[in-house]
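Design request, tokens follow.
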């Protein structure tokens, strides 16, 4: 992954050129997401292959134990039991890794939806004639703030995927996933609520039935 520096530069760019931040950050988010998804798929393939190998070895140990007179060679049997337990532990670790990969993939799907919602809200509010230039500047500022947090979320997910390839403690990895998941959920809720507030304000400002219908059509309301 090579996006950490780009993400930092984009945040700094947004402080100077707000309009540039939105499109540039979305581009980076989408590019990083593609890389994370590829890493997840490769990671799952790898651990699934390891699972098959361990399961085959486990069956060989079980067959050997069944064909052995346990009372005659206790030491050998104990070694096989220890080996079996080792396989079981590795299988459990692989299962946990797969669950972790899938959970990150679920969070990525939520983040993709968040970016999609952001694009739509950003576009629609700009076409709504019921907001002044100052109000639009404020609305865009709030939306851009949510998007900036999304950049941080994607960076955290990238860190988690890298952690699967390193020796990061399971508890630390789980903590990062949990914290990122909560932030993504909050960002999504904040975006939806803020967008709904803007829509309600626009509806309230409608002058007549025709104007009201125009607003409803703009936001896809029935």
């Amino acid at each position: 992954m090579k996006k950490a520096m780009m993400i930092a530069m984009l945040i700094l760019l947004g402080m100077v050129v707000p309009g540039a931040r939105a499109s540039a950050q979305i581009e980076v988010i989408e590019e990083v997401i593609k890389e994370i998804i590829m890493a997840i798929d490769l990671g799952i393939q790898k651990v699934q292959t390891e699972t098959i190998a361990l399961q085959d070895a486990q069956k060989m140990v079980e067959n050997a134990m069944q064909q052995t007179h346990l009372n005659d060679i206790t030491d050998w049997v104990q070694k096989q039991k220890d080996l079996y337990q080792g396989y079981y532990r590795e299988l459990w670790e692989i299962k946990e890794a797969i669950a972790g990969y899938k959970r990150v993939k679920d969070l990525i799907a939520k983040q993709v939806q968040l970016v999609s919602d952001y694009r739509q809200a950003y576009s629609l509010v700009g076409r709504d004639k019921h907001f002044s230039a100052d109000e639009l500047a404020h609305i865009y500022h709030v939306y851009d703030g949510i998007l900036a947090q999304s950049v941080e979320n994607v960076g955290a997910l990238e860190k988690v995927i890298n952690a699967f390839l390193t020796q990061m403690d399971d508890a630390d990895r789980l903590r990062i996933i949990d914290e990122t998941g909560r932030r993504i959920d909050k960002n999504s809720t904040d975006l939806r609520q803020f967008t709904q507030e803007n829509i309600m304000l626009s509806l309230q400002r409608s002058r007549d039935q025709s104007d009201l219908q125009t607003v409803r059509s703009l936001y896809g309301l029935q």
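Comment from the thread starter after seeing the answer: thanks! The radius of gyration is 26 Å.
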